[in-house]
Amino acid sequence: MKRTLGAITVLLAACSAPPTLMDSDIPQVPGLLGVQSIGVDRQDGRITRGTFVSRGVVSDALAQSNTIRGTAEANGWAVRGPDGTRHDARLEMTKDSRRVQYELRADRVDPDMGLAIVTVSSPAAAATGNSAPAK
């Protein structure tokens, strides 16, 4: 019985972890669906460059940015922001030599089509110019 409860606890903890971009340490915008990945570079399992576009409900861009901030800080990122309003917010974070910028926008005409653009950059990726195909 104890073994079963332990296994269930481990499974629930794994399922409740915040989503990340391509199994990395970069938080995905919660509740949005990734629709496009462009120019992705990976090095040692980390994303070092790429642009990720997601769509979905952005009901409060500033509140959603604060959620990302909490997840990022828990993953060791230094975070600046968020700045903006409930309709349009920006957030920037750095770790190692990587920089990640988030831009969230609500769609006032069609609330289901809010937009998030996540841009990852680093000097190392810019120097190599290698791009791995996005999945």
Order of helices and strands: HEEHEEEEH
**Helix content percent band:** 25-40%
Please give the number of β-strands: 6
Mean pLDDT rating? 86
Low-pLDDT segments, ≥5 res: 7-13, 131-135
Tally the helices: what do you get? 3
Share of residues in strands: 35-45%
How many structural units, i.e. domains? 1
| Strands ordered across the widest β-sheet | 1-2-6-5-4-3
| Structural classification | alpha+beta
> Between the first and last Cα atoms, what is the distance in angstroms?
40 Å
Taking the sheet with the most strands, its summary is: 6 strands, antiparallel
Assembly type of the shown chains? single chain
How would you sum up the global shape?
globular
Radius of gyration over C-alpha positions, nearest whole angstrom: 16 Å
Write a brief structural summary.
The protein is 25% helix and 39% strand.
Question: Can you give a write-up of this model?
Answer:
This protein has helices at 2-15, 61-74, 123-128, and strands at residues 33-43, 46-56, 78-84, 88-95, 98-105, 114-121. It has one domain (19-128). It is 25% helix and 39% strand. It has a 6-stranded antiparallel sheet with strand order 1-2-6-5-4-3. It is built from 3 helices and 6 strands.
